[in-house]
Design a protein that fits this description.
Elements (H helix, E strand, L loop, with lengths): L7 H15 L6 H8 L13 H24 L4 H18 L1 H6 L9 H18 L7 H21 L10 H17 L5
Helix pairs in contact: 1-3, 3-4, 3-6, 4-6, 4-7, 4-8, 6-7, 7-8
Organism: Catenulispora pinistramenti
Pfam family, one: TetR_C_33
Keywords: DNA-binding, Transcription, Transcription regulation
Length: about 190
């Protein structure tokens, strides 16, 4: 029987908050149960297992990220859209590090997380319409965007840029400007 006051939504919300606080890699059913002051078995009427919980947090994160990116892209194209797109990703990663890590986990292709991931992919392609690349260049550009933005944000979160006097912000701006140049001057097939 489900514990009064708990619901799948509340459990996932708490798990997402905990992921940000302690790191997604440290998220367990036990930690979530302690947040509610209950024993682990009390959560199993709301989630199937630890993997189900993690996939639900990933779906939440990917949905939140897509909402931010969609808002950032609204009414923008080209360089302006790229700047807003990149800022939305970076800001989300900084404000929700555990959820951002969750968004990068592997999950079943028939899960709600996969649906949210497809929405993010569609937003990547919406951004690239402003550069009129066509296929296969668009797919290559999606991968370049991911490698650059995800790579930078992940390295920055891990402290990789703290050892040099040049501010990470300056390198970020240079990287995004370089992406814009690359996208505007994409090589012909």
């Amino acid at each position: 029987m489900a514990r009064a006051g708990l619901s799948p939504e509340l459990v996932v919300t708490a798990a997402a908050e905990l992921a940000d606080e302690i790191g997604f890699e440290n998220l367990t059913i036990g930690v979530v149960a302690r947040r509610f002051g209950v024993r682990e078995p009390s959560l199993y009427s709301h989630i199937r297992n630890a993997n189900d919980l993690r996939v639900r947090v990933a779906a939440r994160a990917l949905g939140e990220l897509a909402d931010r990116v969609a808002e950032a892209l609204a009414g923008r194209a080209g360089r302006e859209a790229l700047l807003a797109f990149a800022a939305a990703y970076r800001d989300y990663a900084k404000s929700h590090p555990g959820r951002f890590a969750a968004a990068r986990m592997s999950f079943p292709l028939d899960s709600p997380a996969a649906d949210a991931a497809r929405r993010n992919s569609d937003l990547n392609r919406a951004l690239l319409r402003g550069y009129a690349l066509g296929e296969p260049a668009e797919t290559d550009a999606v991968r370049l965007l991911g490698a650059t933005i995800l790579g930078f944000v992940t390295l920055e979160a891990g402290g990789s840029y703290q050892h040099h006097p040049r501010p990470a912000e300056d390198s970020w701006n240079a990287a995004i400007e370089a992406l814009d140049v690359a996208l505007r001057n994409w090589p012909a097939a």
